[in-house]
Known about the structure:
Elements lengths: L12 H11 L8 E8 L4 E9 L22 E2 L4 H14 L21 E6 L2 E5 L13 H6 L9 H8 L3 H4 L2 H4 L17 H13 L3 H10 L8 E2 L12 E2 L25 E2 L17 E3 L1 H12 L14 H7 L6 H14 L5 H6 L4 H5 L4 E3 L4 E3 L12 E5 L3 E6 L4 E6 L2 E2 L4 H18 L8
Parallel strand pairs: 7-15
Antiparallel strand pairs: 1-2, 1-14, 3-9, 4-5, 6-9, 7-8, 10-11, 11-12, 12-13, 13-14
Amino acid sequence: MSSTSPPSLLPNASTLDSLLTTHTRDQSSLAFAMLLAYSPSRGGLLYSGSAGAPLRPNEEPVAPADEPDLLDGRMWLASCTKLVTTIAVLQLVEQGKISLESKLADFVEEAKEVRLLKGFDGNKPVLEGETGPDGIGSTITVKQLLTHTYEFENKSLPLYRQAKGFEPIAAGTVDSIAKLPLVYPPGQGWEYSVALDWAGFIVERISGLKLGEYFQKHVFDPLQITDINFGRPHSPSDELPLAFRPRSAPSTPSTPSFEAPTPRPRLPLSAGPSPRPRDPPADLGGGGLHGSARSYMRVLAALLHGGVSPDTGARILKEETTRGMWKSALSEEQENALNENLRTKRKREHTWMAEHWAEDKAVEEKKNRYTWGIGGMITKEALPSGRGAGSFFWAGLGNTYWFIDPVNDLAVFQGTQILPFADPAFFDLWRELEAELYKGLAQVPQRND
């Protein structure tokens, strides 16, 4: 179903509508999709549209009349959660309760138990260093958490988890995540990780609130958001469920998976039971939120608006804090490590950036095209679509994507609900949507006030 939205400020809104409709006409390709765009200097909400309908498993039927508006249905925001966790941490920094150089272990003592994984002796993990106040876990800083410049995630860790017989993220507690070792000393590289789960634990320990309670009181209430929280909705009619792209041909066994195959097949989508819990054991700041696109857009709009909600006038961060989020926070060594990671490891979390633009010349040129700010990745160059250099962005595993383009005064949220990540059918739509969006943006003059 298409969303009910206010009139668009873009002259080519009908083209954007048509793109959404065309790409979701065949539900086996793309069940539904949405796009929202906001620009303070061009009048606010420029465009909000959606098309299609969710694929629902037989066990959770919803009558057509009860289907939610696509922009108001709650979806798994996954790693889009990290931006909200970053906002919460920066609020504590502004209040003087912590600094970016504060030590994680000063607030979350379990971090003192973290050790360094040096390798394996056969199948047995070899750990190095002491635990406690003088251990390597006690040296991790808040800034390193927010910039992923220490590593809890690495190709070695599945072997480590298998050897230890546990899955820390599924357990979802600080004790379980503290069992993950480092694979290099803090600050000496860059690797996407569970860092924002640790950051969320800091917020809980300082505030005395569960992370979801803190978010509601200090981020969502000021923005008049009531539909973003941890855990799946208990009513199927409130939820936009995940669909699944099979990893293999229909003639071979296949199960829904978080892993993205290489190359990704374009097999039909199917409905299935969600791997996400309705009542998670903990509020994980790295990826646990569920909520609506319309409400998440309010978060992005407040950040682009200098930390102030354009709807309520409430401030969630100082303007200088928000502007600092999309400035590089990496050293030259760390930035080199990030880009080398993208060029050589080509992990599923990162390959979507190259695939989105079809041609990644940086792989051949050995050029650093990306850096990391406080809470997201930054493009160092303008993109072919029109997106400006210095744009701040990230994504969620279920194919939700956001970016803030300070050069063009634009915030965008777009997505669907599909596993695995980096869905090729959504990327086909994304390329066309973003190029068309910037064509329309060029025709809407900015105010000077």
